[in-house]
Amino acid sequence: MFYLTRRETFNGAHRLSNPNWSEEKNVEVFGKCANRNWHGHNFELFVTVKGEPDTDTGFIINVHELSRIMKQEVTEKLDHKNFNLDVPELKDKMPSIENIVKVIWQWLEPHLPGCRLHCIKLVETENIYVEYYGE
Amino acid sequence: MFYLTRRETFNGAHRLSNPNWSEEKNVEVFGKCANRNWHGHNFELFVTVKGEPDTDTGFIINVHELSRIMKQEVTEKLDHKNFNLDVPELKDKMPSIENIVKVIWQWLEPHLPGCRLHCIKLVETENIYVEYYGE
Amino acid sequence: MFYLTRRETFNGAHRLSNPNWSEEKNVEVFGKCANRNWHGHNFELFVTVKGEPDTDTGFIINVHELSRIMKQEVTEKLDHKNFNLDVPELKDKMPSIENIVKVIWQWLEPHLPGCRLHCIKLVETENIYVEYYGE
Amino acid sequence: MFYLTRRETFNGAHRLSNPNWSEEKNVEVFGKCANRNWHGHNFELFVTVKGEPDTDTGFIINVHELSRIMKQEVTEKLDHKNFNLDVPELKDKMPSIENIVKVIWQWLEPHLPGCRLHCIKLVETENIYVEYYGE
Amino acid sequence: MFYLTRRETFNGAHRLSNPNWSEEKNVEVFGKCANRNWHGHNFELFVTVKGEPDTDTGFIINVHELSRIMKQEVTEKLDHKNFNLDVPELKDKMPSIENIVKVIWQWLEPHLPGCRLHCIKLVETENIYVEYYGE
Amino acid sequence: MFYLTRRETFNGAHRLSNPNWSEEKNVEVFGKCANRNWHGHNFELFVTVKGEPDTDTGFIINVHELSRIMKQEVTEKLDHKNFNLDVPELKDKMPSIENIVKVIWQWLEPHLPGCRLHCIKLVETENIYVEYYGE
Q: How far is CA B86 from the centre of its chain?
């Protein structure tokens, strides 16, 4: 079994704020991330697939094809977007990176020909990232 | 003459949109950066000062003091903020990184004891940055 | 199961020298790392925790809380310290990064509310790091 | 169990082109990577070994010894080489990073004293890498 | 005056070998870089332009336009190419990064609307880069 | 005029403490950097030379020769050393990076054949660096 990882980047805006809580409680829990007028990040998305190399190509998956799928299924939906307002799959959820990686998994998993999705890693800042393996 | 550089990080949201233009023209010029619901970045700020080392300390400026000044004068005003809505000095300007570095220069320049401000460098993504030397 | 990683940095000094060996043998085994007058590194510490996101916050753990715990339990004990002289838990051990990650695990493991410690990764230089999963 | 990783770098040239296919099909599948006159990369090789720290040294393996083995068994065979023409073990294979990591595993696995090979990770660009765990 | 820098990446193959010298002298001077079967690198190109921000856009130059020009004038000519064989402007020259940056300057300088070219920086490995300011 | 930069790395230990001051004053000014038992860093040294490319080689200076000179004149004197105790040129000075770059300049400047030293840049952490141009 071989594991191939492709990185794509995007940026977006979000706000962490629970609508069932008072503004005071939101600021207490989320700090500056609750700021009403949004803030944003440059996100790095690492998608890892697993499989055996094809004899003709030496590839688990053609990395240009994987890049195309990641752009079509993920970054076109998130890049330069407001995750709270513009992304239907995140509307009823807190747009934490934990919840975003699960949505990305669901977007990508049905679209990977000839290999299996292994891990979604999303880097929010140089100090914070989340990984999800589908279960 | 020695040049000392200190890095601080912050993140924020902005939108590039000229209020005198139609939405079509804004999208034509600014692309995704004109998106109505904002987007954001992790910014890296590099401040370079110049001077001669003090004989007692070996320092142009104490780097912890420089860090404290950068936080007080710059990152507290920009971190987790919406540059179009929350920053008075940017309200009448396009919040391009060119215009942001000039504002940062004006904030910092009066507050540097015993050395001179040399350069403000602001990195917006791994592929884009602006430098400004005060004139 | 989701995995969240937080990075903190610290620096310190150490020396690799086995007190039961001659200086010649120490230099033969440890090379420059045995130098009598110490040397040091900028260390990067990556702590990975695992759990399910909380419904109210979308978080496995609040990353600011994780950062606070890492500072209190780890970096305050190691930052700008001499690992051979200043850290009681390392005094009877070689301060290799293998032994340091085990100590960090023991410091952190009892203090993580609502999630489980998964991995301690300690980066000594851009070319060397160690990972430990608790067993 | 502890995991120690050492990075070494090398660069080389290769071409992705299946000799059983027409030039048109090669360009269709491999794009620019099929260019007849070669192209190349700076590769980063991360080798991870696992084991228990030795009581006398605190090391799974002496990292300078691991570096020496990586240079002798791997980078001397690949650095500044043409993988299609100069590397016998790759001559009958597509020199994809999937196939290169498997060859590196076979080169290194018999030469690691006192610890076990855990993972070979090969980074081709900042956006692409492959990992292999030996089976 | 403001300075805006844009990064693009490409990779290619080259060989350093003076046709007027013996193979022995080439190996003595250029070492592994003289290898007959080529080697290659991931190059990072940083282009810095200078000017005043436009009042309507806040930009010295639209960074997407700068990216488009860099791709059209530079990376399409160098990406996945053999610099000795495929690039007419380098055929009579040693394809050192010193000589490549001068060619890149000549390609880009006539194509920058509303601003002036300030610096071409070309990074060959994490340890080596060249800068050129046009004179 | 072309500018070529080479990076080398080293690590060392130091302490910032003015012998003419009380311990209280040293801690007040230097904070943790005054700790009696030393601390250390991974340093990155960037040396920039300037000149015209040689017609036969395309080089300002052979980068392998520059690397050899940097190792012989600088990193052998600083790597895995205690800057306060082991480096005669730093013994009467505070081992701040400002003072270290000046010493490095004096070590390197007489040893660069066929080109001129332009800049010494010394990076102490990802957040702090100093540059010196010889005057």
A: 15
CB C93 within 8 A of CB C84: no
Judge: B32–A79 Cβ closer than 8 Å, yes or no.
Answer: yes
Question: Chains with ≥3 Cβ pairs under 8 A against F?
Answer: B, C, E
Q: Judging by beta carbons within 10 Å of its beta carbon (0-12, 13-18, 19+), is residue B64 exposed, middle or buried?
A: middle
Q: State the smallest CA–CA distance between residue D63 and chain C in angstroms.
A: 8
Q: What is the CATH number of the domain that holds F112?
A: 3.30.479.10
Quick one: A65 exposed, middle or buried, by C-beta within 10 A (0-12, 13-18, 19+)? Answer: middle
Could you list the pLDDT tens digit for every one of the 135 residues in chain C? 999 999 999 999 999 999 999 999 999 999 999 999 999 999 999 999 999 999 999 999 999 999 999 999 999 999 999 999 999 999 889 999 999 999 999 999 999 999 999 999 999 999 999 999 998
**Do E and D touch (≥3 CB pairs < 8 Å)?**
yes
Count of structural domains, chain F: 1
Interface test with F, best of C39, C79, C125 (most F CBs within 10 A): C39
pTM attached to this predicted model? 0.97
Active-site residues of E, by number, are 33, 80, 124
Which domain, by its residues, includes B102? 2-132
